[in-house]
Amino acid sequence: MEKESHIKRVSMRNTENPENIKKELEEALESWFKTSTTKRPAGQRPTSTLAARPNSEIDTGDADDEDLKLIDVMSEKEVNAKIEELLSDMNLNDDKKKPLRDMPMEQKRAMLKMQNKKKGQHDTGSRFNDPEDYYRYLDQHINPEYLQLNKCLNCVESLRVALTNNPVSWVEKFGTIGGLQKLEQVLDTGIRNKDVRLQTECLRCLEKFMNNTTGLKAFFKFSKAHLTVARCLDHEKPTVMLQALKSMCFQFINALLSETEDFEFRMHLRNEIVRNGLYEKLQINMQRPNINRDKAC
Q1: Which of 15, 85, 86, 176 measures 20 to 30 Å from 194, CA to CA?
Q2: What is the pLDDT of residues 214-259, one digit of tens each?
Q3: Which residues form the GBD/FH3 domain (predicted)?
């Protein structure tokens, strides 16, 4: 099971203790920019373009030191502006941002230095660093003349991890360059070629893409994607069908609750959902056998 975004756990607890929040945010940044520590032997070529990226052999220490020094000489206004950018990437609401905005200036500088350092470790020249890399690769391999479903599947699996672990700005950039439309095309290709694994991974990617307000709104505006997802509701393919239902149902609930600013009204909606039996249904589903082994379903 893939790890869930660390930021959401930060936003739900320790909101009154800046020290605890700072510690958890450090862990979140670590997860965003985590890279492989395994080096391949000299002369050995990677077995896959989607394999874990090796450590860069270029000495970037000097550049990193320069960036860290720049943070030390930033004015308070510049530091606060950078902190705002960081908080926006973390997809936090204003209530959760307040304790971080109130941190001492030295702690803010330390946060920025850590972010800069991890980002430098992350940018090692891998083929799949940026949203554009995924877009180009998928565009190439769903071309009918060069269709390779196995390569599409590998790329989509990697994309799901990237959408999960990268900051919101990365996800937003993926949407801006047409990533959502390209993902819908890959899902459509999986449906037409009856590739269950590719369909399932595309649906998981859509779920991760919609895990923020910008992605959710982009999906709602793209009506063609709604029809393509609806085509996945095929009882003869229960794995794909349940993934589609799970993704869309929870995004619908998330949209209802997240678009409501008033806390009391959000609680009212939550109670209405629970009152209508969702909690009991979830408990029943958690106790059911695995759908892949339950032939009766």
Answers
A1: 176
A2: 888 898 899 898 899 888 888 788 888 888 877 777 667 766 666 6
A3: 71-297
